[in-house]
Amino acid sequence: MNLLGRKALVTGAARGIGRGCALELARAGADVAINDRAASAEAESLVAEIQALGRHAALIDGDAFARASCQEIVARAIQALGRIDILVSNPAFSRRGDYLDYDPDLFEKTLQGTLTAGFHMSQFVARHMVQRQQRGKIVFISSVHARIPFARAAAYNAAKAGLNHLAKTLAAELLPQRINVNVIEPGWIDTPGEHATFGSDKIAEAAPSLPWGRLGQPEEIGKAAAFLCSDDADYITGTSLLVDGGLALRAAIPAAEPPRT
Q1: 160 Cβ partners below 8 Å, 6+ apart?
Q2: What is the mean pLDDT of residues 65-80?
Q3: Which family is annotated (predicted)?
Q4: Catalytic residue among 143, 168, 223, 230, which?
Q5: What is the DSSP pairing of strand 57-61 with strand 179-186?
Q6: pLDDT class for 93, splitting at 50, 70, 90?
Q7: How does pLDDT run across 49-68, given as a tens digit for each residue?
Q8: Superfamily of domain 7-244
């Protein structure tokens, strides 16, 4: 319970990676304000799960893509928990498409929902931490897309790469306040969104071909977040933690073993 007594805000928390992060922070002892665009059965069930772990949970609905809404989300989370020690910023929007035909409005929306939203939410939380003269932890959920230029994902690739650089810049600026700012880069994670994008059959077919032989699970990203938000990671800031089961190394795997001499 190395996060016992800490107060966390997790955005995009109702399902997938956000849900995994919220649950693992709670299992580590944190009270959690969970944010999603609107109240839903999924969000309410997450609140119940966290409460069953003996931790306090508050559902904060609101659009994390819009600045005014971000400010309200942070204010309501502070009201519910008393303060915010931890932010796990997990808003994202992704639609794949061929670059030559890609809708420019969709490109702007992807940057807004993945990069700009992270800036807004983290700025309000960081201001709160600095005002209280408290140390804190900010973790951005990025993606292996930040380092691998997957085809048909130009907008998402650019947004996640930008998010990584934003986090490093914030880490540098917040050094005097001892606010740790780090990034997690998930690989292919088994989430409802991935099933909606690719289809369950295609995912089941592709999983054995991945370097680790399977997709990652949301709780594995959550455990990485819990570590980065703990005192065990006090000396870690401005870094990107790749949690991808070796996906970024796939090109380095030989197609066949060379003959031994």
Answers
A1: 114, 115, 142, 143, 145, 146, 185
A2: 97
A3: Belongs to the short-chain dehydrogenases/reductases (SDR) family.
A4: 143
A5: unpaired
A6: confident
A7: 999 999 999 999 999 999 99
A8: NAD(P)-binding Rossmann-like Domain (3.40.50.720)
